Amino acid sequence: MVSVFGSFVFADMQITKGMGLALAVGVLLDAFVVRMCLVPAAMSVLQHAAWWLPRFLHRALPHVDVEGEKLTREQARPAAADRDLLASRS
What we know:
By secondary structure, the chain is mainly alpha-helical. The protein is built from four helices and no strands. About 0% of the residues are buried.
């Protein structure tokens, strides 16, 4: 994006040159200064608070189980219950 916006500097119109330069500098600052310096520093300072999710939002978001951990836990539960049942019978 920096190179595309930077290429506008070679246009004939003054407004296009100014806009291209401003957008190129803005994208460059956002990509390097903000996302590579400020965000990691803020997350390092905030530690666990950086990942805090409000309770109302936690309830509103869907629970996505990509790797199937919930299914593994549900399958392990009956096996443990069967062992407990067998142990109580003997």
